[in-house]
Amino acid sequence: MPFGGRFFGMSSLWITVVALLFLGMGLFGLIAPAALMQPFGIELSSPEARGEVRAVYGGFGLAFGSLLGWVALDGSGELQRGIVLAAAVALGGMALGRLVARAVERPSAFYPAWFYFWVEMLGAGLLVALVFG
After folding, report:
1. Per-residue pLDDT tens over the stretch 103-113
2. Between 20 and 30 A from 105 (CA), which of 4, 66, 87, 99?
3. Could you give the CA distance from residue 57 to residue 49 in angstroms, rounded to a whole number?
């Protein structure tokens, strides 16, 4: 089934939800990098550390959120399908990193590590289902 025809219903809504999550992370990372890292017990004591969070969390979140927002508005074609799949793979990679952390470090509480693991897995699974479902 072609990818594009499904984007004017529930698929567009779910892509928009994931886009908003990425955009929220991106804006938070740009505006308040230390606050974003605080739940993880990470102190950003240098301009370089805050710059890194702004680049990775801020820039990455805004870039993927913008791309997914564009797909939700104009979701047809292989380019859009590739963007959704790339976002799913990125979320899956984040979740995989949390699993490795669980095996090596053993996070002490559900929040934040396991909470974000499940958010990432849900987002990845949802996007994969939209691409291949």
Report:
1. 999 878 899 99
2. 87
3. 12
